[in-house]
Each structure stands twice: as C-alpha cells, then as structure tokens.
C-alpha cells in the first residue's frame, strides 16, 4: 500500500474527476490517493465516481475554499 | 450453453434521452457502461461552481449522477485537444451560433467506436431521436453520424430504432427490436411518459442547453477571441475564461475581464501568474484580468474600467492594485470611467 496525493485545485467540474480517474488507473489495489480540490462540486462528484468504479472514500473534508478526499483504490478498475 | 452477455457503451450526456436509452437496453439484459466527453464547452458545473448566485445550487455532474442512478460505470474522457479540429474545421458547418453539432456527434461516436474496440464491447448506444434537434438529429443526418463515425450498424438508437433500418445488435438478436421505440419529432412527451414508466422522476432539463457553443453570448466572445489572435487556436483556459465575468475590449490588442461577484473574483485571481490582475483596493470593487498585449497606458485604462464597476464609481479617484504575472505589484490611482465613456461596442 502506498500513499499518493493529487493537486486538483483550480480545476472545475468534471476535470477533478478526470484527473482522479487517470491517476487511479496507474495505482494498485489498496493504494491511497489524497485529492485536494477547490471546486465544491468535487465533494459530490468524486465520491460518486468512486462508488460506481469500485473505490472507497476513506475521508472527506470540506475546509471552506478547499476540500480533501482520501480514496482507497479498489480491485475492479 | 449460456449465451455471452453482450456489452454496450452508451454516450451519456446527463440528460433524459441518454438516460432512457440506457434503461431500455439494460432491460434487455445487456451490460451497459457510459462514456462522457469533456470538450471544455460543457455547461456542466463550471459556471455554477464559480458564481456566488449559484452557490446554493445543487452541485453535481449530471452525467455522473445519471450513471449512478442507472447503476452503470461512467468513463469521462478529456477530449479538449482533439475537439479543436471539430470546432475549427467543421465539415458540416455551424448551427445558429458556433455549434458544430453534426461534426460533434460524428466525433463522439467515432471516439466511442475506438473505445469499444479497445475494451471488447459489442455496440454503441445513443439517446438520439429523429427530428429532436435541427442539425444533428434529423432523418437525413442520423445516417451521416453512423457513416462518418465509422460505427455503421454498431450504432443503436433505442428511442427511435423502429424508424431506422435494423442494426447489427437487432439483426443478431442481441436486442429485441420490438421492445425498442419509434419516437420522432421535437415533442418531449414520449420521453416523459417513458421516464414515468421507469419511475424516473428527477432528471436534468431536456437537452439543448448543455454546450456553451449553442449560446449566443458565448459565441460572440469566442468569435471576438479568434478575431484578435494571430490564429484561431485556443487553450482550455481561454475557453473557460469566456464563461466568466464581463468581457470588455477597448482596443484590438487587449481586453479586460471584470468579475461580476466575489466567486468570479476568486476564480480570476487564480490566473495572477498568467495575466495582469487588477484588484480594487480603496473601496469594495471587482477583480479583473487583462488579456492581450497591453502597454502601461492600456493598463491604466483597464484600471479605470475596473473602478467603474466598484462602489467607488462616483468618486474622483480609486486605488487599484496591479499585479504582474512575473511578480511585483504597483498601485494606481485612477478616475473611474463614467458609464458614457464605455462605448457599447466595447462590451462583448
């Protein structure tokens, strides 16, 4: 298991999801990816994409101007 | 011997038609996944996330939301670079504004075809309906999409299939043609009735407003951008900035983008390392960017324009901060322009 980060600040919907999707494609099951976003829409969109793609959201924090989403990569990709 | 489960890739826009098309095919036991293409011109999300007045709107990507409601996976593809060719050189021309709808649909179906070939899927599904759209969804243009995309009879339109020749999935018995539909025309009633039958109550407003290229005001700004650049090439930031703020062009070689609220101001502030940034300092007022090749006198004029849209518009002087992309900031004391000093043809 390895921890990774992705800076998706200043990107607007749906680019944060696209960047997460592309990054996760290169990771292994069990890896964890922390995504930092400034688009509040990411708080809905990234968890939705994770649910339908077999990944788990471990933590989701709304910090005002930014939000942080911690994802555990699932097996089915 | 069990029959293999056939797999279809559906173009999912987030609107009702593609949602229904997926449901119709799911009902026939087909495994469906969705694909959505990000061109940079999608109305989805962007402006809603930026503007203050949209802060309370539900923020969701409709394509993702629809996919989750349908229980399918969605693949979102960034096609911003490839899409330039479609927009700049549309074989079939533009619609009412700068919308190359027919070329756009051909492009998206061609991309879907590449995807299914690379992922072992059997056919493509779209929510197209004959007569629904004036350019890309006419009886004479639906075959153009199938032919020019290369998809041919791998392209199934479940909502109007009974009005079209049988496709491969129908001829091979992968789907039952009699359980497909014969919708046509601009009416939305059949779709709404089918949505009720499926128990679908919440869906994005019917199609038409999902692409900025169909928006008259946006097209004016894009045409202006093209006129004032050496070439019509553009970057993602160019087309995103056209969605934000008031665009004011006092001269061919520069324009000013003035935020209309704090949300837009924050967004424009994100470009401070790329373009000169103006911020009102001595009173409440907007943030603005200057795009182009302005000289010091142009920047002073830009500052006067910014001052005109702030609370100090009636004062003799207003202090404006000017940030340079390479770093460094200076303060300008300027007289706000009066409304009559901004000619109507500066406003895009």
What can you see in these coordinates?
The complex is a heterodimer of chains A (77) and B (348). Helices cover 29% and strands 32% of the residues of chain A. Chain A has helices spanning 15-24, 42-53, and strands at 3-8, 32-37, 56-62, 67-72. In chain A, 35% of the residues are buried. Chain B is of the alpha/beta class and 348 residues long. Chain B is built from twelve helices and eleven strands. Chain B has helices spanning 16-26, 46-50, 62-70, 80-88, 101-119, 142-149, 168-171, 189-198, 216-227, 236-241, 262-269, 296-308, and strands spanning 7-11, 31-38, 74-78, 123-125, 155-156, 246-251, 254-258, 277-280, 287-292, 318-323, 329-334. In chain B, β1, α1 and β2 (31-38) form a beta-alpha-beta unit. Chain B starts with 6 loop residues before the first strand and ends in a 14-residue tail after the last strand.
Q: Terminal Cα separation of chain A, in Å?
A: 16 Å
Basic shape of chain B: elongated
Unreliable segments of 5+ consecutive residues of chain B? none
Biggest interface pair, counts: A-B, 20 and 28 residues
- How many domains would you count in the coordinates of chain B? 2
**Annotated CATH topology of chain A:** Translation Initiation Factor IF3
Provide the helix percentage of chain B.
25-40%
Record the strand order, biggest sheet of chain A. 1-2-4-3
Salient structural properties:
heterodimer; A: 77 residues; alpha+beta; Translation Initiation Factor IF3; 4-stranded mixed β-sheet; B: alpha/beta; Rossmann fold; 6-stranded antiparallel β-sheet; 11 strands; 16% strand
SSE diagram, text form:
The complex is a heterodimer of chains A (77) and B (348).
Chain A: E1 3-8, H1 15-24, E2 32-37, H2 42-53, E3 56-62, E4 67-72
Parallel strand pairs in A: 1-2
Antiparallel strand pairs in A: 2-4, 3-4
Chain B: E1 7-11, H1 16-26, E2 31-38, H2 46-50, H3 62-70, E3 74-78, H4 80-88, H5 101-119, E4 123-125, H6 142-149, E5 155-156, H7 168-171, H8 189-198, H9 216-227, H10 236-241, E6 246-251, E7 254-258, H11 262-269, E8 277-280, E9 287-292, H12 296-308, E10 318-323, E11 329-334
Parallel strand pairs in B: 1-2, 1-4, 2-3, 4-5
Antiparallel strand pairs in B: 6-7, 7-9, 8-9, 8-10, 10-11
Helix pairs in contact in B: 1-8, 5-6
């Amino acid at each position: 298991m390895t921890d990774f980060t992705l800076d998706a600040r200043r990107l607007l919907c749906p680019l944060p999801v696209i960047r997460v999707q592309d990054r996760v494609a290169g990771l292994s099951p069990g890896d964890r990816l922390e995504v930092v976003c400034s688009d509040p829409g990411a708080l809905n969109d990234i968890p939705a994409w994770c649910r339908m793609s077999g990944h788990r959201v471990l933590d989701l924090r709304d910090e005002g101007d930014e939000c942080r989403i911690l994802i555990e990569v699932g097996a089915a990709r | 011997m069990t029959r293999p489960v056939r797999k279809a890739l559906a173009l999912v826009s987030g609107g009702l038609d593609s949602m229904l098309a997926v449901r119709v095919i799911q009902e026939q036991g087909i495994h469906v996944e969705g694909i959505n293409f990000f061109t940079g011109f999608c109305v989805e999300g962007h402006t809603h996330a930026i503007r203050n007045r949209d802060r309370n709107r539900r923020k969701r990507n409709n394509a993702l939301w629809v996919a989750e409601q349908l229980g399918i996976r969605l693949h979102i593809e960034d096609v911003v670079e490839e899409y330039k060719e479609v927009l700049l050189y549309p074989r079939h021309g533009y619609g009412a504004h700068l919308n190359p709808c027919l070329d756009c649909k051909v492009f998206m179906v061609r991309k879907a075809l590449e995807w299914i070939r690379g992922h072992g899927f059997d056919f493509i599904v779209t929510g197209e309906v004959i007569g629904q759209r004036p350019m890309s969804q006419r009886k004479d243009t639906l075959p153009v999409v199938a032919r020019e995309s290369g998809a041919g009879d791998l392209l199934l339109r479940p909502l109007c299939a009974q009005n079209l020749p049988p496709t491969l999935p129908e001829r091979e018995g992968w789907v039952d043609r009699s359980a497909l539909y014969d919708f046509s025309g601009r009416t939305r009633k059949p779709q709404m009735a089918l949505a009720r039958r499926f128990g679908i109550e919440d869906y994005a407003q019917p199609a038409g407003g999902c692409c900025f290229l169909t928006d008259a005001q946006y097209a004016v700004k894009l045409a202006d951008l093209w006129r004032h650049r050496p070439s019509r090439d553009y970057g993602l930031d160019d087309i995103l900035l056209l969605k934000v703020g008031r665009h004011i062009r006092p001269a061919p070689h520069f324009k000013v983008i003035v935020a209309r609220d704090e949300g837009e101001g924050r967004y424009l502030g994100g470009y401070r390392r790329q373009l000169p940034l103006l911020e009102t300092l001595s009173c409440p007022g907007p943030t603005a960017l200057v795009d182009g090749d302005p000289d010091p006198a142009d920047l002073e004029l830009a500052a006067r324009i910014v001052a005109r849209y702030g609370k100090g518009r009636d004062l003799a002087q207003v202090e404006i901060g000017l940030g340079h992309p390479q770093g460094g900031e200076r303060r300008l004391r300027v007289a706000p322009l009066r409304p009559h000093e901004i000619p109507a043809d500066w406003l895009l």
